[in-house]
Amino acid sequence: MSxxxxxxxxxxHNGANAQADFPGTETATHFNYEDEKQVxxxxxxxxxxxxxxxxxxxxxEDWATLREVADKIPYSAYLVILIEFCERFTYYGLxxxxxxxxxxxxxxxxxxxxxxxxxxxxxxxxxxxTFFQFFCYVTPILGGIIxxxxxxxxxxxxxxAIIYVVGLVIMTxxxxxxxIASGGAFPGFIVSIIIIGFGTGGIKSNVSPLVAExxxxxxxxxxxxxxxxxxxxxxxxxxxxIFNFFYWGINVGSxxxxxxxxxxxxxxxxxxxxxxxxxxxPAITTVILGRKRYISAPPRGSIFIEAARVIGYxxxxxxxxxxxxxxxxxENHPELLDKATWDDVFIDELKRTIKACAVFCWYPIYWLCxxxxxxxxxxxxxxxxxxxxxNDIMQNIDPLVLIIAIPIMDRFVYPGLxxxxxxxxxxxxxxxxxxxxxxxxxxxxxxxSMIYNSPPYYNMPSEANDGSGGNNYISAGxxxxxxxxxxxxxxxASITGLEYAYKKAPESMKSLxxxxxxxxSCLGSVLQFALVSVTVDPKLVWMYTGIACAxxxxxxxxxxxxxxxxxxxxxxxxxxxxxxxxxxxQHHSHDADFKDNKI
Length: 599
Hints:
Layout: H1 60-65, E1 68-69, H2 75-95, H3 98-103, H4 122-136, H5 139-151, H6 153-173, H7 177-182, H8 185-213, E2 221-224, E3 230-233, H9 235-254, H10 256-266, H11 269-289, H12 303-314, H13 326-332, H14 334-337, H15 344-360, H16 363-371, H17 376-382, H18 397-419, H19 426-452, H20 480-504, H21 510-530, H22 540-562, H23 569-573, H24 579-586, H25 592-595
Parallel strand pairs: 1-3
Antiparallel strand pairs: 2-3
Helix pairs in contact: 2-8, 2-9, 2-10, 2-11, 4-8, 4-21, 5-6, 5-8, 5-21, 6-8, 6-11, 8-21, 9-18, 9-20, 10-11, 15-20, 16-21, 16-22, 18-20, 19-20, 19-22, 20-21
């Protein structure tokens, strides 16, 4: 079976150990690795397997004695990562200067001591930046529905990329000095962030599943490294590696804020917005030129209606979702059998998806912690001594830490832990991420307290100099650890969340489930809206302290509620359907074989 085929459901017999005895891994995959020859320039790793012609499924003894490693990443996945790099370069280049753009008035000349344009104050700036984040993570639901039900991921990405460009042009045009002076910049800004929000949302919900779809193996197998060591190559380790690279690309792109913050301070806002606009061109070019290389699941029109019907019937039938499997309906509710357009595997997939969405319910508090980095921490730096650098350049510490830390985690930390038998399953990693987010906010509360105890403005630096703000005698270097802790939390919570959303969703709902995960960031923005009234001096210490306490309480509760999921992570991920089953399912076959789940 080639690398582009759907995983077979029948076990591959290769001696006595061919069929897996590990729970949930009933199948094995024979791989044709011709596609790997195309990945000549992909970074290699000692963790990548030196493949043999055949790879048996791991036995119970293999699971007990062999360590897990990641497979190689397909070439097409790197193209998708390039698309995400360009889009995130644009997004963070723009949004990295929003807080100053809105909060402070336009300077008399450039270079400016304090960059600004609209002069609306910190509360308005925080509210609008929060709205932008909110909107950018609501629209992925629309993008997910369009992709899964109508257009597919590729066409949806291309369509929303065009919408994105329109918003970028408006943003750049209305940030010109003449537009700022005439009062046209503010309405232009509102219109552009709404259009950009639609564009980035449609792309965001689809590019993450698309990068993971480039890897087609769904079941673990045994292989041999160049050193001669026998290992288990698992989808879990491979997806972890793919999303680590994907997130690394995001953070390399986000360094664009270094350039745009320098441009806003030294030249003005129109070049700060023009640079990200021009960078979006390679993103669209990559989408178009790579169209023949991408592997993308086709849309299946009725999936959301079907899921809603199943959930609706589950309240009417005893036994929950399991009782709605066609194999169970035959015995207990034959009158419903003709109404079933699903099969047994779909029910298992839907159960797994609902369980994943329960995990996502804890993320809004996490994103509330994260969002401080792009709003209130920027304003905090404006009340500290930053030397000759812009106050909003400090946020780039976060991606710099991630760019260094992610490869270290991928090549050394995670493989080293797997080597000694510590597998770092998803729920445990997310729990660690929540813990570091709580630490980041507690530390930030301490920094804010130090600011309020520093001269010359003490606890009212925002009202100094006739309301334009002033600096207390404390270095912005104290903020470095806030960004470091947030970055560490992202490695464990944010990357793993992307991975979890993809792995737990059925093939026909990948974009929607990813959008639901991204929607939790939107809910975090709603919580941030609720805190706008306390984002003023001298209440900021209590705001940061409250967020830290909320995240600190959620962390152990999250582990208590979901820690057991790690024990069945591999078993759940093995729920797949073969090509024949998928074709029958795609066409809503209603014959007896489909109902009996025999295809």
